[in-house]
Specification:
- Strand 2 and strand 3 form a beta hairpin.
- With 543 residues, the protein is of the alpha/beta class.
- Helix 7 runs parallel beside helix 10 and helix 8 runs parallel beside helix 9.
- It contains 13 helices and 22 strands.
- The chain starts with 5 loop residues before the first helix and ends with a strand.
Length: 543
């Protein structure tokens, strides 16, 4: 059997040396992997030793989604006039480019192709406002970077774990000058940057691109005592570019998928992505509300699959809190990922942080919150500055996830993800602003470790943010609604998102009688308080 070099079979990319695309870009969806030269019984030909070890450690089987795209399909597309930029084994498809003068309708559709889907047109060229919430202010002294860790007790976790031995992939928009900055000196000196790749312009230098990824990188990997210590300073990193900041088109979601597959193949343990998608330069591509169910969008399917392959995936919730969309963006809405909201130094939700979905209760997003206003990072000029955005709250949590993986090397990606959710100060209650709340990572440590460190932990009070609640919870025969924040309506939803009870709230305390409760089946429900421009929700249990 003919074997292919591992990188060629996974990426199958022709190096463009950073040249910009001149044609329309399409997603080609294949309908089979038949006659592939790769075998599930020989995964060493398409997965690295580290990737295989991670699967074995978490008892994850090799399946058909791991098999690379059939190389014969790529040869056929090339013959038809397509330039094949990337292939996706998980989604069984390819990102291709076609000369703008050639009509896609004139191209033969082979039997192994389901459809061609336009993902970017050559005429689209307008700068995205995705990173507009970032602003800077010169800062000095280590204490400023300590605040973003101490809020989540990260400095306590750092006493026993700093990410050593853990591999993190940062999927972002470019890492301008990262290889020249003093804050990363020790990282590069120890070989902590495992490699880089530009999926937008294969062969391009990611260090000459946008500054955003450098800022995110510094929040995780920065190591400059007296100024900035990152959330995982001893981890190792892959720097991957998927975002084209000159425009906003859905092909960037496809680049993200390819990068996530690359991270899997390389054996990464954590993916951080401070990117998100909902609207595009061409409104015809915009996602609609119904697609945000945690499993429908292709990028969200891939994000869920990345977790299933054994990686912890951490995503910015999005900076849409003040705009017309308002909600979580993809892939942060994916069911199995950690979606991170942003709070200020006083632990209050920021206005820009994207909110969850008040009507679709098939998923609970965001998952947790971390500091996203006044976060200390390093600019591409080497200055220690502060900025705002969920782009900055996400890497704080991603670094903490790496530290937990070091501390608990035998836990699965799902176990680490659920652990972080459970550390939130609202857990098991949830709301669309804070998710399960601000995690306290000291609570993840064993009693023996805490005793050694002489640390005493205690739960934060839920009343620090919300006092409107229900008691008792769990309930059996009746419950009382405590409406101390002037909400106007109360709803009870089942886990399918169906409204099973609602009432107007015109007083501070309302008792729901046994006659209503008796009609409810035992199990989990969602209590929803609604008011003008505000929603508060959390889990409610009947036993």
């Amino acid at each position: 059997m003919k074997k292919y070099l591992i990188f060629l079979c996974l990426l199958y990319s022709v190096v463009l040396n950073g040249k910009e695309a001149v044609g329309n870009i399409y997603w080609v969806q294949f309908n089979t992997k038949i006659n592939t030269p790769y075998l599930l019984s020989e995964p060493e030909y398409f997965l690295s030793h580290r990737a295989l070890a991670r699967r074995e450690r978490q008892n994850i089987a090799i399946d058909s989604t791991d098999l690379p795209v059939n190389p014969a399909f790529i040869d056929s597309l090339s013959t038809l006039g397509f330039y094949v930029k990337h292939t996706s084994k998980w989604m069984n498809g390819a990102i291709v480019e076609l000369d703008a003068t050639i009509s896609i309708d004139s191209i033969l559709k082979p039997s192994f192709v389901d459809n061609y889907e336009l993902r970017k047109g050559v005429s689209l060229k307008s700068a995205s406002s995705k990173f507009s919430n970032i602003d800077s202010l010169q800062q000095v002294y280590y204490g400023n970077s300590l605040s973003q860790l101490s809020m989540i007790k990260g400095e306590i976790l750092h006493e026993v774990a700093t990410g050593k031995g853990v591999h993190i992939a940062i999927i972002d928009a470019g890492f301008q000058n990262s290889n020249e900055l003093e804050v990363f000196d020790s990282l590069y000196k120890r070989g902590g940057v495992l490699g880089t790749y530009d999926f937008v312009l294969p062969g391009n230098d990611v260090y000459k691109e946008f500054y955003h990824g450098n800022a995110v990188f510094s929040i995780m990997a920065g190591n400059h005592p007296g100024q900035l210590i990152g959330s995982a300073p001893d981890a190792s990193y892959w720097l991957l570019r998927t975002e084209d900041t000159a425009s906003e088109s859905p092909v960037e979601e496809d680049y993200w998928i390819i990068a996530a597959e690359f991270a899997d193949q390389q054996g990464c343990d954590v993916i951080n992505t401070s990117l998100g998608y909902s609207t595009f330069d061409n409104p015809e591509f915009n996602h609609n509300y119904e697609q945000f169910d945690g499993k429908t969008l292709r990028i969200s399917k891939a994000a869920n699959l990345a977790v299933q392959k054994g990686m912890v995936v951490v995503c910015s919730a999005g900076n849409s809190g003040n705009d017309a969309w308002g909600h979580i963006v993809a892939p942060s809405e994916a069911r199995d990922v950690l979606s991170i909201a942003a709070v200020d130094v006083n632990e209050k939700i920021t206005t820009f942080s994207s909110r969850g979905f008040s009507e679709d209760w098939s998923i609970l997003k965001p998952d947790v919150a971390a500091m996203g206003a006044g976060v200390t990072y390093t600019s591409s000029m080497g200055e220690f500055v502060t900025g705002n955005g969920t782009s900055f709250s996400s890497p704080i949590i991603a670094g903490m996830a790496a530290c937990l993986i070091e501390y608990y090397p035998n836990k699965t990606s799902f176990e680490i993800t659920e652990m972080i959710r459970s550390l939130g100060n609202y857990y098991p209650q949830h709301n669309i602003e804070y998710g399960f709340g601000i995690p306290d990572f000291s609570k993840a440590l064993s009693t023996e470790t805490l005793d050694t460190l002489n640390i005493n932990t205690s739960k934060k009070s839920l009343s620090s943010h919300y006092s409107s609640t229900i008691y008792p919870n769990p309930f059996q025969t009746s419950f009382t609604i405590n409406n101390s924040e002037d909400y106007t309506k109360f709803e009870l939803l089942n886990t399918s998102g169906e409204r099973v009870f609602s009432t107007e709230l015109n007083q501070s305390s309302v008792e729901i009688s046994s006659s209503i409760v008796s009609n409810l089946q035992k199990g989990v429900y969602f209590a929803v308080f609604r008011g003008e421009h505000k929603v508060h929700s959390f889990k409610l249990m009947k036993y």
